[in-house]
Amino acid sequence: MSTEPALMTLTEVARAIAMKQVSSHEVTRALLHRIAQWQPHLNAFMSIESEAALKAADAADAELAKGKVRGPLHGVPLAHKDMYYDAGHVATCGSVIRRDFVPTTTSTALQRLKDAGQIRLGTLHLAEFAYGPTGHNAHYGPVRNPWNVAHITGGSSSGSGSSVAARLTYAALGSDTGGSIRMPAHFCGVTGLKTTWSRVSRAGAMPLSQSLDTVGPLARTAEDCALLLALMAGPDPEDSTASHEPLSDYVGATKGSLKGLKIGVPASFYVDDLDSEVARVLDETIAVLKREGADIVKAELPDQRQLSSASQLVLAAEAAAFHKRWMIERPQDYGSQVLMRLQNGLAVPAITYLEAMRWRGPALAAHNAATAGVDAIIAPASPVPAPSIEESDVGGGPNAPALLQRLTLFTRPVNFLGLPSLTVPSGFTKSGLPIGMQLIGRSFDEATLLTIGAAFQRVTDYHDRVPKLPS
């Protein structure tokens, strides 16, 4: 455990504040100091609210001195993706169209963290309207990877991944519709939990695709993700789709062993055409899991390319439906890439969309049948490490479109099926870029994924490594 406040995990700093080993003011000031150093290099924050955060920290310290504890996050400063509405605060959604949008309600997920005692540090950058896999934003500039600022963070939760990796916030809410939590976790070397569809309320979170959107955290450890999930999960009268499925002891699950767990390695697709260093890290990760007691078996999965294509089709149609009025009235206010993606959605026939949606149930049933004998599937979060900002941007050359498609190849099937997936830092390339592996679980079985992720992190240190401030 680090004694430097900014380098503690969420779990550690929450405990240290509760035990009065460090004050909320000290912790908040430590993060604000790092933010001042790193923000010019990363562009990870959309807004930094230093004065308000310190004032809130002082109030939290005063309450604690009187014996009042709001909850498990009392006095812990956090920043989140700027698409979670917070009444009275601007939520840009990474766009020009909502540059001055001030919501009158607060996102349920965010409110539950506030009720638990978190302090607002500011808001985090994201791809425009959360619709982009890289971290580029035509209006506010790209977010940069703290391990190498010439490289992407992954999107759309770009600021969340970058800021957690650089230790500017202990954790951050992201959203995952096609990989937008798991890609930043993989590219930035942090832990990211894509929850089961409907596990966490989406009320007050900017919508992109009603059938695919999920709310989840990016943090430094599986234990931290478990803490946040435990606070956010559950039914919500403001979101009729939020599940009433019973909750698990997510934090307790992180203390479990791998012995007796069966982890499947896909026989194809997720292991095909991998970058050599991603393939190496996959093999090394499997070896660690086996050494720690997991039973590693081959898994024959249904056609994942069909799932990926169906996921893209559903996303395109539903995103276009949400943005139709603005596309007609304000097309000039979109970045060119995002506008093109949205316009493509207008061309999806209703019959094709409905066929994809009808296939979703049978596809999940087929997946469940194929994985009935395993507790989780392990696979790379992406076939490649983080590409450069230049090669993945508009004008990045003839290979740029294919590169963008490849980035999300391994994440979209999970979204279509609505399954949970946990990405954990699993290694580094020779040039120092992080590589993450995703664990794909059964519906509403985040607990098993958190058990595996935490057990892996107890015997590895990839999640503990901290990028160096660029000179």
From TrEMBL:
InterPro entries: Amidase, Amidase_CS, Amidase_dom, AS_sf. Residues 26-450 form the Amidase domain. One of its GO terms (molecular function) is ligase activity. Keywords: Ligase, Transferase. It holds the Pfam family Amidase. Hydrolyzes indole-3-acetamide (IAM) into indole-3-acetic acid (IAA). This is Indoleacetamide hydrolase.
